[in-house]
Write a structure and sequence with these properties.
alpha+beta, four-stranded antiparallel beta sheet, 19% helix, 36% strand, binds zinc ion
Length: 88
């Protein structure tokens, strides 16, 4: 599978899913926010992808915006490590 195909597959799987570890919902906005990672899924052994997610504008306006990088399995959709990139 090419990177473009992987992005499509994972985007379809997670486009409606809310991410975030502290109650602020964050979503993936674009296929291009999905990138290769070298991690493997601890659950099914498939490739994990790095996904950039962010909260919607209203959260930023209320000074509680978030941006995370989350690892998500291309196969089963399991969420792995999450790294907080930015908050206000
Ligand atoms: Zn998996």
């Amino acid at each position: 599978m090419t990177l473009g195909e992987k992005r499509k597959v994972l985007f379809e799987k997670i486009k409606d899913r809310a991410f975030g570890r502290d109650g602020i919902p964050c979503h993936v906005r674009d296929e291009r926010d999905i990138n290769l990672s070298y991690a493997r899924c601890p659950k099914c052994g498939q490739e994990m992808m790095d996904v950039y997610v962010s909260s919607s504008a209203e959260y930023w306006q209320n000074l509680c915006g978030r941006e995370w990088r989350v690892q998500v399995c291309l196969g089963c959709g399991e969420e792995g490590e999450a790294q907080l990139l930015r908050m206000n």
